[in-house]
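Work Package 3 (structural annotation) set out to generate three-dimensional models for the target panel prioritized at the project kickoff. During this period the team completed the workflow that converts sequence records into discrete structure tokens, so that structures can be stored uniformly alongside our sequence database. As a representative example, we reproduce one entry of 72 residues exactly as it appears in the project archive.
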Amino acid sequence: MRLMIAITIVAVLGVLAYVRMELPEVSIHFYIAVGLGVGLSMLLMSALMGLVFMSNGTGHDDSVVDPLADRD
């Protein structure tokens, strides 16, 4: 998770630098919204992906029964 936080910080700074170059006359509120939106989205996606890998690695995915498998 520390690696993803570092990658997120770099990505947010990159996006903010790009926005600054392309739209120099926007409000500070726009930069705050973009930074929070990109940062929270990336952190949420990395946390959910981590949960998927943890669920698969601990065997929780194997214990699921598919009720539609018998219909073939």
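The CA atoms of residues 16 and 22 lie 10 Å apart.
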